[in-house]
Each structure stands twice: as C-alpha cells, then as structure tokens.
Amino acid sequence: MVNVLDAHALMAYLNAEPGCLLVRQMLSEATQGGPQLLMCSVNLGEVYHTTQRRHGLGKLPELDAVLAKLPIQMLPADVPLAKEAAAFKATKKMSYADCFAAALAKLRGGRIVTGDPEFREVEAEIPIAWLPHASDTPAGPPAPQASGQDPAAK
C-alpha cells in the first residue's frame, strides 16, 4: 500500500513530535523496498511555510538538505489532483492543502499518514494511519539534522 504523508506527519518527524517514530519506521521501510511514500507539493509547501514561520528563512537550506535524503516521492499538483482536491473541499470541512493529501491518497489507492483531526472528514472513504498525539506516547528521539545520517538508514 502507498502511504501519503501530509504536512503534519513530516513535521512530526522533523521536529521529534509525537508520531515521529511511526514516520521514521515508514521511512526505513520505504528505503528497504517497503510501501512507497508520497507527498503532494502543496503539502510540502505547508512544511516550508511552517518552518520559515517558526525558525526563519535561514532554516530552509537545512530543511532542503534533510528532505533530499528522505525516500519520499514529491508529486506536483496536476489537473486531475486539483480536481479531486476541489471535490473534497466542496464537500468536506478541511483545509484546501489537506484536500490535496486526501486526493492523492484516493487517486493512488493509498492511505494518509497524519495526526491532523481534519482528516476524520474522509476516514470513511480513505484509509488513514493515525499518528499518536502528545497524550498518547512520548515523542521519541529527535530526527537527524542535515549534517546527520540518513534518517531512513537507521
């Protein structure tokens, strides 16, 4: 099965937040021929804007270096994906960016990896791998920085 990461999942991994251990496991499995990891460029944009807002523009080159090592296939928002995302937005109470993750999972027959409760809107239609919340589990060790090892190699 294909796993589609939303911004919440990637941010959990990058910031050692609850759920990072599950994302780290998925990264490792993808490196070893396990389920493919996909992410829409719209959701990647969320990661960039959140990182810049929290840490400043100077943090983006480090983010680029970390992302370059991850086994995540970044996909553009093409017309069929945009139409499917628009259909979700028209019928569900979700952010437009989250609609792109849902649309990608639907079109690719995958499941969404997230901890974002907005995705409850689509869980009857699309499988979801729910990441734990802060009250459920400890965050785990921090994700490697750009100068560290490839996170999926662990």
Task: Give your account of this protein's structure.
A five-stranded parallel sheet has the order 3-2-1-4-5. It is built from six helices and five strands. It has a single domain, classed as Rossmann fold (3-Layer(aba) Sandwich). It has 154 residues and is α/β, with parallel strands linked by helices.
Summarize the topology.
Layout: E1 3-5, H1 7-14, H2 20-31, E2 37-40, H3 41-55, H4 60-69, E3 72-75, H5 79-91, H6 96-108, E4 111-114, E5 128-130
Parallel strand pairs: 1-2, 1-4, 2-3, 4-5
Helix pairs in contact: 1-2, 1-3, 5-6
Strand order of the largest sheet: 3-2-1-4-5
Strand content: 5-15%
The assigned CATH architecture is 3-Layer(aba) Sandwich
Sequence of secondary-structure elements: EHHEHHEHHEE
**Backbone structural class:** alpha/beta
Whole-number mean pLDDT:
90
CATH topology: Rossmann fold
The CATH class? Alpha Beta
Shape: globular
CA radius of gyration is 15 Å
Which stretches of 5+ consecutive residues score pLDDT under 50?
Answer: 137-154
Task: Tell me the number of strands.
Answer: 5
